[in-house]
Design brief:
Blueprint lengths: L1 H44 L6 H22 L11 H24 L2 H8 L2 H13 L5 H18 L2 H4 L33 H28 L5 H24 L12 H25 L4 H7 L2 H13 L6 H27 L12 H22 L1
Helix pairs in contact: 1-10, 1-11, 1-12, 1-13, 2-9, 2-10, 3-4, 3-8, 3-9, 4-6, 5-8, 5-11, 6-13, 9-10, 12-13
């Protein structure tokens, strides 16, 4: 019984240490995903005259092509393990519904308002994670929700906080979006004289989109490592195509989302970059969610708005804004605190016994002891 308890102690300690490594790795993957999506949005702005749903369609085609090629190369089933296929469908469909809700919100509300509402997703993710996966919502995550949402509001400049700017090009914020919940690019903004009832409905729909996006994130946690991140990208791309058909026909009045004219070489290259960067964003975000809790991971996606703002300053020569700089500082500062705390927590783990580190340390220890005893006996005999 004593040996059994010792083995369990070693196993639990090993898993504890492994979880800490995975947690920090998950944050790193999420940040890579946010960076990849920001690259995607930068190139989307270069194609701002294209139908948004056309961009989404070709992006989905690229995602499907890359995912299928990777699964074929690794000799994995395209549909994924049977026991998680339902979760894969739920994850993809909730992400696609969130996209439609975001599109509706940006049509009926000023873009900064829609973007700010979309970044309420981390709170929904944390709530769903507690109910469906049993993950705790820690104090640090609660504080982070307030800090990151405040940072997003400073960068996005919602009208209810900053008022309606005059002579502002709404398109300058068109790249701000969140991965699953704002999977794709904004299309158009209607006039501000929208009826109060419509605005109220748009707010409710946007909140519903943030909730379904949070559910999509939690489904990744529910799936865990039973399916690869590539399977999740494939399912999302496959379900995005019918969603774009319906969305384009209903919102834009055009069902031919592949475009009416032949693509130029430049447009084709831009679409390829959008497709590859989108695949990278989806892949790294899903991979990060497999190693990090939903609450912390979704907060890390807030860095996407920071990268987008940096790209606008560097490549699109947007003017510096004190509020945006403050918001970026809040988000990046919080993520730095999280990373430092995780590193400190990992460094504080010092095993009390060597047997906590190696599964066969007992045998190794007894072997060393036996060699020492033999050597001592031999020395005494010679003496």
């Amino acid at each position: 019984m004593k040996e059994k308890r010792k083995f369990l102690s070693r196993k639990q300690s090993s898993l504890h240490l492994e979880d800490k490594h995975h947690s920090l790795l998950g944050i790193f993957f999420i940040l890579l995903g946010a960076f990849s999506f920001s690259v995607m949005f930068l190139f989307v702005k270069l194609m701002k005259d294209a139908n948004t749903f056309t961009l989404v369609f070709y992006r989905a085609v690229c995602e499907i092509a890359i995912a299928v090629a990777e699964l074929k190369r690794s000799q994995k089933s395209l549909l994924g393990p049977p026991e998680v296929r339902l979760y894969l469908v739920i994850r993809a469909s909730t992400g696609a519904i969130a996209v439609c809700a975001f599109f509706y919100g940006i049509q009926m509300l000023p873009l900064p308002d829609a973007v700010t509402l979309q970044f309420i997703t981390p709170a929904f993710s944390a709530a769903f994670a507690v109910c469906l996966v049993g993950e705790p919502w820690k104090l640090l995550d609660m504080i982070g929700s307030v800090v990151c949402l405040t940072g997003v509001a400073f960068v996005a400049h919602p009208t209810w906080l900053f008022g309606t700017p005059t002579g502002t090009d709404v398109d300058t914020n068109a790249a701000y979006a969140s991965e699953d919940a704002s999977e794709d690019e904004p299309i158009s903004i209607v006039s501000e004289d929208v009826a109060l009832e419509q605005k109220t409905m748009a707010v409710l729909v946007s909140l519903g989109g943030a909730a379904t996006a949070g559910l999509a994130y939690v489904m990744v946690r529910k799936i865990g490592d039973r399916a690869s991140a590539v399977h999740m990208v494939l399912y999302f791309g496959a379900l995005s195509i019918p969603i774009t058909l319906i969305g384009s026909a209903y919102l834009v009045g055009e069902w031919r989302i592949w475009g009416k004219e032949m693509l130029s070489l430049t447009d084709a290259c831009l679409l390829l970059v959008i497709g590859f960067s989108s695949y990278a964003g989806q892949f790294f975000t899903n991979l990060g969610l497999q190693h990090e809790t939903a609450a912390t991971a979704t907060l890390a996606t807030s860095t996407q708005i920071v990268w987008t703002y940096i790209f606008e300053l560097v490549f699109l020569h947007e003017a510096l804004d004190a509020w945006s700089l403050a918001g970026s500082g809040l988000i990046l500062g919080y993520m730095m605190v999280v990373a430092v705390l995780k590193l400190l927590r990992e460094s504080e783990y010092i095993p009390t016994e060597e047997t906590e580190l190696l599964p066969f340390a007992d045998e190794a220890e007894s072997g060393v002891k036996e060699q020492y005893d033999t050597h001592s006996t031999h020395s005494r005999h010679n003496a």
